[in-house]
């Protein structure tokens, strides 16, 4: 059975606007605090079908663009110790399914980090549409997921004197996306 689209959005193709979209992450550090950072969302398309189930998403992120507020840490994260951005400069996501329950959207798909693809589930919501001052029809979305970094071959760590390890395994990823409707012609 087809699920109707959320109120306010129409079928069509929407290009993700990198200058108004954010991909952020957080991971536990030394077991007591979180390190937060961003990675540039460089391109993507949201295809809104006539119903929710015929919709889909693709996205690309620049693995070299990590920003945690500490250039030394950023260089370490892009090194072979973590995600080897020289060998694997892009992360990608390609949806395999979309479902809607109330206001909650679930997008399942394949996330590729460090050259390794794994199925993930993004939980999110459609945040509305607006026409910007330049005449563009925009649609907004928010989504989040958690991954285990070891599933993507990111295994570097250092033991702590009191026990445990420096870097947590669970990485929380959040997305705030603004997308622009493609015009025909």
TrEMBL record:
Enumerate the InterPro entries for this protein. Lipid/polyisoprenoid-bd_YceI, TTHA0802/YceI-like_sf
Task: Name all Lipid/polyisoprenoid-binding YceI-like domain ranges.
Answer: 13-180
Q: Name one Pfam family in it.
A: YceI
PANTHER family xrefs: PROTEIN YCEI (PTHR34406:SF1)
Instruction: Name the family.
Output: Belongs to the UPF0312 family.
> What is the recorded name of this protein?
YceI family protein
Name its species.
Answer: Myceligenerans crystallogenes
């Amino acid at each position: 059975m087809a699920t109707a689209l959320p109120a306010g959005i129409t079928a069509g193709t929407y290009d993700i606007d990198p200058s108004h979209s954010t991909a952020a992450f957080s991971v536990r550090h030394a077991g007591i605090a979180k390190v937060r950072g961003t990675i540039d969302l460089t391109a993507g398309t949201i295809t809104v079908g006539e119903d929710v189930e015929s919709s889909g998403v693709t996205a690309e992120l620049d693995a070299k663009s990590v920003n945690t507020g500490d250039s030394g840490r950023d260089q370490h994260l892009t090194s072979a110790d973590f995600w080897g951005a020289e060998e694997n400069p892009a992360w990608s996501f390609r949806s395999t399914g979309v479902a809607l329950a109330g206001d909650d959207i679930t997008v399942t798909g394949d996330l590729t980090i460090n050259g390794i693809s794994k199925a993930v589930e993004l939980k999110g919501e459609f945040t509305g549409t607006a026409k910007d001052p330049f005449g563009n029809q925009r649609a907004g979305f928010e989504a989040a997921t958690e991954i285990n970094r070891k599933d993507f071959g990111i295994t570097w760590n250092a033991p702590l004197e009191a026990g445990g390890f420096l870097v947590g395994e669970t990485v929380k990823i959040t997305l705030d996306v603004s997308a622009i409707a493609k015009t025909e012609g």
